[in-house]
Amino acid sequence: QKKNCSIKEEVPELFFTPDLMGYGWVFRKGDYLNIGLGREDKSKLSTHVKAFCQYLTEQGKIPSDITAKYNGHAYLLYNHAVRQMVADNVLLIGDSAGLAYPQSGEGIRPAIESAILAADVIRDCAGTYSSDTLQAYNEAMELRFGKRLPGPDTMERLPMFVKRIFASQLMKTHWFTKNVVTDKWFLQTHQKPMPAIDT
How far apart are CA 80 and CA 12, in angstroms? Predict the structure, then answer.
């Protein structure tokens, strides 16, 4: 199998899905392959995973005789989440608040930042943790991560064929793949560090 795998250990590979609803990845860890697919929708996820693996096989990236069991779960996305983040004695942080970045699925940084914001609010509550006294957390979250939107944004409203046309052209340009896909979507270089919190 190793002979039939063209994935280099030092180069992780990313592949955007044709409908722009997610991306797949494949990278080597010694004698093992890490293959995954993240999507914004959970409809027919196993079908999408099989199609992605078939594509990797056809491209000569992975051997055709891989036997793998794929596990997965859906992520809540902050922008469209309707789940309350505050209740009596409760604050949601990280994944439970939907704080993974939608383009990359990376959630470590926003999880840490939301935990810091939560700790700051809890400290200021002076032992009274009712929903009312914890409301400052909602305000702090909006300041850091923006307002949650109940419906689709402009890009989500575009018909799929329009997205595919634009995506196929944009992904061919060095400027877009470097400045938008790599720097903005994955590395989040546009995100300023969170201001220091007084202790």
Answer: 30
For residue 196, count other CB atoms closer than 10 A to its CB.
7
Contact (Cβ atoms closer than 8 angstroms) between residue 114 and residue 97: yes
Beta strands in the chain (DSSP E): 13-16, 22-29, 32-39, 86-87, 90-91
Encode pLDDT of 25-79 as tens digits.
888 777 777 888 888 777 788 888 888 888 888 888 877 777 777 766 666 778 7
Strands 32-39 and 86-87: unpaired
Range of the structural domain that residue 113 is part of: 78-151
Would you say residue 124 lies in a domain? yes
3-state DSSP helix/strand/coil % of the chain, to nearest 5:
40, 15, 45
Separation of alpha carbons 30 and 111, rounded Å: 29
Is residue 170, in this structure, part of any structural domain at all?
no
Assess whether 46 and 100 both reside in one domain. no
pLDDT in tens, 85-136: 999 999 999 989 988 887 777 889 999 999 999 999 999 998 999 999 999 9
* Location of structure tokens 């930042």: 113
Residue 166: what residue type? F
Q: 138 and 89: one domain?
A: yes
Q: Is the pTM of this model over 0.85?
A: no
